[in-house]
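ligand=AFP
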Amino acid sequence: MEASVGEAGKTKFQIDLRRYLREDGEDEGLIHLICEIAEASKYIVNSIRTGDLGVAGTSNLYGEQQLALDVLSDRILRKRLAKSGVVSNIVSEETNDIIFVAPHRTGNYSVAYDPLDGSSLVDVNLAVGTIVSIYKGSDLMLPGKKQVAALYILYGPRTTLVYTTGKGVHEFGMNQLMEYTLLRRNIRMESKASIYAPGGLRSLYTPGTDKFVRQLEADGVKLRYSGGLVPDINQILMKGKGIFFYPHLRNASEGKLRLLFELNPMAFLIEQAGGAASNGRQRILDMVPQKFDDRSPFFCGCHEDVERAEAFIREEE
Ligand code: AFP
């Protein structure tokens, strides 16, 4: 626990991440793992602020050109996870293969992560983030409902870490000493959206999604989209009244976003806050992955709006 001086000169106590996890009764291995990821994020935030914005000359699993920052963030996180002593297997959105750290060690965790989601936004100085999905054991090809923890770190004007271990959603902020201290516990979402964040090209939307957008506009729901999944989801979660979607498109039936690295962790967080996450037909967390680079349409946020999106999509079939 860190003491700090609050307004009016009174001492107030900040609860740090490790202490909060302990008080919540988490397993020591999981606490260590989450804290190691939090440590890695301090180096990632430093790279974002001061690092090279050029291309690395390599491409990722999807044939996309990697930025030097993508490669660096991936190395920072991978090294930290590999040396943590509590990780079995790792898969990163940036690498082609599963990394076997200690596949047979019992009691360990396996981790899927996107080290720097939205990295193409760094050169225009918009917010980006790290997304992490954690499973018990060595299997990573499991439906998202098997996650034991999910978190993201948002590198915006402030750096925040938002996590769930299935006991609500909690937000921590990085302070002047680069420690994460509690900002909000048990974040809850309302049932109806007042903002929406729509990914992809609207002219490529199918009739169901197009009708859904028209309905949102008719209801006075405001558009708020940055193009970075972490800040866009964070806005919806923290305001508690929004819907994010990256739908199936006429030229891309699975949309753009990745099930293992982006959708499962975000769906777990949103559901834990009382929201919903669907691919338009099925709950995201029930989807069984076939391969690491599976993609899926994604509708995520206030549950009434997700249900409404599903109804419009059912009609188009
Ligand atoms: P990059 O990592 O290539 O910048 O992609 C970001 C992202 O995967 C995700 O963060 C956004 O939600 C989504 O793409 C935005 O995609 P559109 O620009 O097609 O809306």
